[in-house]
């Protein structure tokens, strides 16, 4: 299986290599047909995993990795969906194993999988609010706890709390979560 | 079975040669706990700000110092009151050690500091300082490397040709 064969079989624009895997981007409308073609025409019969990637303003990426048992080669298929409408068609009818992976991606990233039989939460406790792998999700620990780096050298915690100077802000904490 | 394997089986069966009966042989750059040389710390807060886990706690205060000369202004210096690392949060990334501009933090090979509760894993500066005793010597410089700046400075001082500071 070469990148050119994959491009021809899936009708994709181009393929790249990531380590030993071939990586192909497909439009959202062709998501299920591309995966079906990969399974039937390229003999990628083993479903490895499916997950999401939060690209902030560029929406979400859905990645699926397939493996060819006969050819001993891996293929990653990716598609994008906008933040306003984060849905792709479900792969659970093509690979039964995709069912749980899509449930996991749905609860952790808030993605929708059209055609999934039962998109119930899989891992999170009942009543959990939010999608913890989205970049805007704020960890409780980052809200509850005072950032230890917020103090200036030689400044006590009391002085730091009362100070009106512009404060250093912790990296990687969404603005809504900053104390 | 070769001689090494045979030896391993015998030692395993006898219960000898393994932790906790014997101290393990750790690789020279083993990442155990993190040690602190308190004297080197200037309370710059860089480690606490860079720590992705928020597991470094530093308290400090300012103390006045007398002016250098009769015309000098009074000075202040930062004094460390508390330096603690919460090893229940630490992920051993080593960013604090890398970022420290004054070489106050070091990897130590210490690993046996478990506690019965998560709060027992907050270790204060006295213990972090004790761990410094187990830090191995840094590896020797490559034979072709330039001499260490400390060594050239010391030699220049001896000759009386120290570079102006």
User: Which fold name corresponds to the CATH topology of the largest domain in chain A?
Assistant: Beta Polymerase, domain 2
- Count of extended strands of chain B: 5
Number of domains of chain A: 2
> What percent of residues of chain A adopt helix (DSSP H or I)?
10-25%
Shape of chain A: elongated
- Which ranges of chain B are low-confidence, i.e. pLDDT below 50, for 5 or more consecutive residues? none
What would CATH call the homologous superfamily of the largest domain in chain A? NADH:ubiquinone oxidoreductase Nqo5 subunit
CATH topology of chain B: Alpha-Beta Plaits
Secondary structural class of chain A: alpha/beta
Mean residue pLDDT of chain A = 90
Strand content of chain A: 15-25%
Strand neighbour order, sheet with most strands of chain B: 2-3-5
* Strand proportion of chain B: 15-25%
Shape of chain B: flat
Number of helices of chain A: 5
Greatest interface by residues involved: A-B, 16 and 22 residues
The CATH architecture of chain B comes to: 2-Layer Sandwich
Strand order of the largest sheet of chain A: 1-2-5-4-3
């Amino acid at each position: 299986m070469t990148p050119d064969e994959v491009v021809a079989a899936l009708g994709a624009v181009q393929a790249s290599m990531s380590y030993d895997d071939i990586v192909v981007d497909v439009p959202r409308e062709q998501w299920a047909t591309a995966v079906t073609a990969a399974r039937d025409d390229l003999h990628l019969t083993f479903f490895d995993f499916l997950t999401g990637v939060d690209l902030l303003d560029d929406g979400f990426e859905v990645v699926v990795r397939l493996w060819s048992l006969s050819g001993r080669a891996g293929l990653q298929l990716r598609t994008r969906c906008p933040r306003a409408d984060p849905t792709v068609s479900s792969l659970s009818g093509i690979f039964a194993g995709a069912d749980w992976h899509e449930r996991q991606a749905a609860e952790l990233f808030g993605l929708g999988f059209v055609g999934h039989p039962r998109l119930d939460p899989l891992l999170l406790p009942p009543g959990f609010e939010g999608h913890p792998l989205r970049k805007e999700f704020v960890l409780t620990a980052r809200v509850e706890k005072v950032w230890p780096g917020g103090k200036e050298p030689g400044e006590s915690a009391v002085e730091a709390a009362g100070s009106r100077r512009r404060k250093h802000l912790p990296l990687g904490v969404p603005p809504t979560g900053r104390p | 079975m070769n001689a090494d394997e045979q030896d391993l089986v015998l030692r395993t069966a006898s219960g000898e040669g393994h932790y906790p009966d014997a101290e393990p042989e750790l690789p020279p750059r083993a990442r155990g706990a993190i040690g602190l040389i308190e004297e080197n710390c200037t309370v710059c807060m860089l480690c606490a700000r860079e720590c992705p886990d928020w597991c470094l706690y530093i308290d400090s205060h300012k103390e006045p110092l007398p002016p250098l000369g009769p015309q000098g202004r009074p000075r202040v210096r930062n004094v460390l009151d508390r330096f603690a690392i919460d090893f229940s949060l630490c992920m051993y990334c080593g960013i604090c050690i890398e970022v420290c501009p004054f070489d106050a933090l070091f990897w130590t090979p210490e690993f046996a500091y478990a506690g019965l509760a998560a709060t027992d894993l907050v270790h204060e500066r006295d213990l972090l300082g004790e761990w410094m005793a187990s830090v191995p010597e840094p590896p020797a410089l490559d034979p072709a490397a330039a001499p260490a700046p400390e060594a050239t400075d010391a030699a220049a001082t001896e000759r009386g040709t120290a570079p102006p500071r």
